[in-house]
Amino acid sequence: MLNIPELLEIVLISVDDMKTVLLAQRVNKNWYTTIGQSRSLQETLFFRLPEDALHSDRNANRSLRCNTLLLGTPQKHHSGAPLYPLRIPPGGTNNDVYPVYSSAVRMYLLDKKVKPFGDAKQPFLTVPLPSFPDESWGIECPLIFGAHSMATQFPYVNKTLAEFERGVRNQMMLGHVHRALRRRSVKSPLQNCNTLDGIPTEGSWGPAANPADFDAVKAAGFKAVRIPVTWTDHFEADGKTVNATWLQRVSDVVDYALTRNMYAIVNVHHDSWNEFDLTATSDYTSFETLFYSLWLQIGAKLACKSSLLAFEPINEPTGSTAAQFTELNKLNTIFLQALRDSGGFNAKRVVTLVGPGEDSVKTSQTFVRPANITNPWAIQFHYYSPYDLIFGAWGKTTWGSDADKAALDADFAAFRGNFSDVPVVIGEWEANNLIETSARWKYFDYLQTTAKKYSFTTFLWDNSATELDRSIEKFRDPVAIDILMAAVKGKPNAVPDSTTDGSITQVSSAFLYHKVGTNITDQTLTYNFNGNTLSSVNGPDGKALRKGIDYTATGSSVTYKASLLSKYITASSAAGPIASFSLKFSKGAALTAQVVQWDVATLASNSSSATTAAGGDLAIPITWKGINRPAAVQAVLPDGTCLVDTWTVYLPALQQCRTTYGNQWEFDNGHVIIKSGAIQAAIAAAQPVKFTFEFYPRLPCNNATYTLIV
């Protein structure tokens, strides 16, 4: 029989320099009963007593459960909040959970030099336990003494919003469909990417989330992930009860983040244009009931997750009328009520509230702070601007002019001005990897630097085809990620120079291009050092190149000598990426200059009948000869008229009559693809259409043409 003391004392015995922590309960002055062990004092311990300890008088509600113990190192420990014990079930067994009615839980730390069964030092943490009636029910999150094995559970530590915001200052969105899904077919190669927000289920749009994804993201420096979840196809037959297996899967994926000490945000995602489409009805009664029920169930399932977890009510909600905006504000209120009612830690959990479409302008104009809010909260918006750059539209492949930067700064300044006293989260942003590489690096640097200027927290959108290659758990553009991480820390990045004028031949300092069949000469690339100095230039083998022999550096320029380049390429070398040099600077991220041998890519054929391809996409085999992606695709009729978007004739020369990725064209490893929408437009025009596939570098001669004959 285990006596229930007025003070339950748990002793932590440090072993192996804190790598292992033994847990014991004091029996008398000099002896302790071993309970279990944990890997680190950083964990909250969710452990079970030995079988012989479970001989309490159940009829008298004598039991073996105490409040959550929030552990930390003696130098930096946490204090915890009291929780409600469960009522003892009638006729319970040794596998059941029982509460302990002690007045306090006291933690001791024994140094490894102290005898394991000697006297403890002074306690470094004491957590008082309140008294509660035996009938107390509800979701609560205690430290549990059960019958068999030990497991771990994370602590809930009250956080101010500022603490949460600091914690997620580096973060990433992991595993989702491309932002432009609703604008194009899900067959796009950018959509073999999704996890929990897939329709109808996880895996429908790409690989399921796995722990290795989170390992790779954390190793890159990210501190948080936003985990969108679509619930529409996971209700039971009654249309309101969420499938228990799905709830458990969501919980498991959340734990992938939390067990790695990463922050996470969970939301209701593509349901915004399914079950909760505000534009589909004006009778919101059943709509509100289901929304409350859904969040009540989500909240209950995740109620005991640690304070690393935050919630977001709904992703990019629809709406364009005053009535719809009013209803969205009401949904924010319903969401908060459901969280309070779901119990656990949810009444004090961080939430990020939203406005229409999570658009910065609409949110500024229509968002109303809920009157019932007691949770620490932030406002969230998404940033995909300029549209043509982000979504591969109309030949826009460059960025970084003074006007480009001013537009981004003005957008952020306006939003901060409207929410001057509220933490702000950019829940999604991205610059796709179709655009010119230097432009992408400059965008990453300037967006994150400007976000830091306005104290915005940012989440990078990843569709598995842009950032993390989940087949090998490596980032496709590690330089962009390094630039982002340096900018988060406030370090100035050197960035490569590149053309920002869409009317002239475009150049880039991210590459050392050499045309097949031409002489090898010195090449000079220019950079914006941003106050940095060049520390070294290293070769593909990681060894430093010889300044003055292999390269020279003057001002903001680096000249790569012909003698150096000749070690890697000849006039007749096969086309494609050859080697990469690394430039290291006094601060910020290292850059690369990739040597690329190029020639004009060739198509397997140059024409076909539009009617033959009608009803589907047209995949044209291609032999790549350099950078294996198109830069832009132009589509014109015989008289020079644009096939689509005729207004683009007023854009700069390299954007005129250019089409949009995903709508009119795509590509894969061995094909360029004319989309069915473009084929139908050609048939409707009743004229031949010439498609010009332009490649990098964007020079007048570097393209291949294909004609759809009508």
TrEMBL record:
Glycoside hydrolase family domain boundaries: 196-465
Location of the Carbohydrate binding X2 domain: 508-595
Entry keywords, A to Z: Carbohydrate metabolism, Cell wall biogenesis/degradation, Cellulose degradation, Glycosidase, Hydrolase, Polysaccharide degradation, Signal
Molecular-function annotations in GO: beta-glucosidase activity
Claim: Transmembrane helix is one of the keywords in the record: no
UniProt-listed SUPFAM superfamilies: (Trans)glycosidases, E set domains
Gene Ontology BP terms: cell wall organization; cellulose catabolic process; glycogen biosynthetic process
Record has Ligase as a keyword: no
Pfam families: CBM_X2, Cellulase
Cellular component GO terms, alphabetical: cell surface; extracellular region
InterPro entries: Carbo-bd_X2, GH, Glyco_hydro_5, Glycosyl_hydrolase_5, Ig-like_fold, Ig_E-set
Highest taxon of source: Eukaryota
Similarity field: Belongs to the glycosyl hydrolase 5 (cellulase A) family.
Name of the protein this chain belongs to: Glycoside hydrolase family 5 domain-containing protein
Native source species: Cryoendolithus antarcticus
